Amino acid sequence: MTTTKTSPSTASLSVVVLNYNSFELTIDLLRSLAEHELVDWMSVIVVDNNSPNDSYQEIKNAVASNRWDAWCRIVKSEQNGGFSAGNNLALVETTSTHVILLNSDTLVEAPSLTRLSQIADEQPDAAIFSPRLQWADGTAQNSCFRFFRPLTELVNAAGSGPITRLFPAATVPWETDGQGGHLACEPDWVSFACVLIRREVIEQIGLMDDDFFMYYEDIDFCRRARNAGYLIRHVPDTKVVHLRGGSSPVKSLQTQRKRRPRYYYAARARYYAKHFGRFGLFRANCFWLLGRGIAFCREAGGRRPPHACEAEWKDIWINFWNPLTGRHR
């Protein structure tokens, strides 16, 4: 493929890749971009979030040896400020019409990013677009959602079919196409594992909130965008492979019901306090306790395995008194 030198400040499409301790995944992602995307359309900025391993140098060497420097450059953060702060470091350096945030644990198997940009040009009534996320075998992942609200905590903690059916608006996962993916839709928020954001949204509502170290930052950004009148659109005929687990253990810990890191609960507390006030956070925690009580009764009867993560009853209260200050309390 013939590549054309593009500058991150002038390219029509900028792709931001955040790396933390996952240089092998990031290099594989860059290779997939080189093979399948029209790289003269876009520039790529890789932000290394102060990885303690040799990520920065390894990625730098790969870019140089593969001659990807015509369209890719690397920025090293002086600290690991988290997902929002790392992406913001690149966002402030771009002025392109469209920006795509792309996790390091993704792969592109077709020109889906440039196609997503074309669709955004064709549909100016929406400002945030998401592709279909899928596993390497093509199985779809759930990537479209409803907003978390205090009552959501009851639904999630109870893990009960009747409770879920009683409060459908508080159920986070969006309706699927029957195979785990989604039809074309306008959800409340979408996964930021891969998302296209129109420049005008950033100019109007600002950057991502970097007081979210990790988790809930995508919900917060989408909520702010929707409050400003922007639509969010899911485009299932554009596809990106999402391997998951590149830099955070939260999902695997949740699956194993082990204790999740403090930054997860700090982000949860900030989200509820920011959008529902401290009383909203209090209601969310109380709804969680009620749901946990329902689940515990079922567990005590031997009808189901433990549903909550270790120490979750305690962790949800850690940031209650200062939910909007600090990120690792």
From TrEMBL:
One of its GO terms (molecular function) is decaprenyl-N-acetyl-alpha-D-glucosaminyl-pyrophosphate:dTDP-alpha-L-rhamnose rhamnosyltransferase activity. It comes from the Bacteria. Residues 14-131, 194-284 form the Glycosyltransferase 2-like domain. Keywords: Glycosyltransferase, Transferase. It is an enzyme of class 2 (transferase). It holds the Pfam family Glycos_transf_2. The keyword Transcription does not apply. Gene3D superfamilies: Spore Coat Polysaccharide Biosynthesis Protein SpsA, Chain A. Its EC number is 2.4.1.289. CDD domains: GT_2_like_c (cd04186). The keyword Magnesium does not apply. This is N-acetylglucosaminyl-diphospho-decaprenol L-rhamnosyltransferase. It comes from Allorhodopirellula heiligendammensis. The gene is wbbL.
